[in-house]
Amino acid sequence: MTKDVASRSNKNRHNDRAGAAVVELAVFAPILVLFCFATLELTFYINLKQSLATAAYEAVRGASGLNGTNEKAQQEAERIFEEREINNASYSINRTAEESKSGDILTVTVSAPMSANTSVHSGIFTPKSINVSATMVRE
User: Fold this and answer.
1) What is the helix (H) or strand (E) element at residue 132, kind and residue range?
2) What is the pTM of this model?
3) Beta bridge partners of 121
4) Best CA proximity match to 52, nearest among 124, 117, 106
């Protein structure tokens, strides 16, 4: 009889442990999925922000050179937008390069929405759009 009670006790422990494993999975699986999506979204955000920073830098470099123009700056920004496949991006400059003189500060701002440039965007972990500026002194 003692052997019979011991075997039933082991079966109950096994069933209790299996039930605990199911509860643990039910609690932590959504957290793990959320963490994976947050990591993906953050990765897309960093990539887009770096691409916009490159576009802003190249655009302000095109405007601030000796023969720099707003058209040259816009061409540089659009070149980066096309190379990096950035959708719905916008570009602005604080003053016209043609009218500025040597020593003036030129600032280019580029922006793009996250939703048009990522496959995973919930808006929970990252902003809806990204704005990046670059500033240089006119030569």
Assistant:
1) strand 129-137
2) 0.79
3) none
4) 117
pLDDT in tens, 54-85: 999 999 999 998 889 999 999 999 999 999 99
The CB density around residue 77, as the number of other CB atoms within 10 Å, is 28
Length of the chain, in residues: 139
What DSSP string runs through 118-131?
A: -S---SSSS-SEEE
Residue 58 vs residues 12, 36, 45, 120: alpha-carbon distances, Å: 69, 33, 20, 28
d(CA 20, CA 54): 51
Burial of 107 (0-12, 13-18, 19+ CB in 10 A): middle
Burial of 117 (0-12, 13-18, 19+ CB in 10 A): buried
Read off the amino acid at residue 113.
Answer: P
